Amino acid sequence: MAVKLLVVGATKEKYFKQSEEEYLKRLRKYCKLHYVVVNSSKNSSNKDECLAQEQDSILKNISEGDYVLLLDEHGAQYSSRSFSKKLNELLVNQSNLVFVIGGAFGFSDAISVRSDGKWSLSNLTFPHHMVRTVFLEQLYRGFTILNGEKYHND
Known about the structure:
- With 154 residues, the chain is of the alpha/beta class.
- It has helices at 14-27, 47-59, 80-93, 109-114, 128-146; strands spanning 2-8, 33-38, 67-76, 96-101, 117-119.
């Protein structure tokens, strides 16, 4: 099972980098996670131009057989326990699982069409760099729940 986290734009803030690195380190115990950063579109303030440029970078990193889940504010929401259950189903039934966190404008229509689903971490809006840490923590939490470890408290 290959798991990939595909993100748009490099993390610049030291505190976000440190938190990402911590959860990436913790996740090594559970899976081989490929963390891929693609360039964000900084050449334009036009939303459609940015999305088109980022679309090409994202699609280059997705293979035909990948199961793609977008982290999107309009996606399905899960509790941590239901997220871990869904994660387990995907790990069992999909050979390549790709989670994608978009840039400031989200995703183009082509990326949305290519995806196999959308997940939302909250009804709240977060900076996309913060979403990385929150998602990595939830992924870690999901694995600890699946393994019966004492991390998650109900």
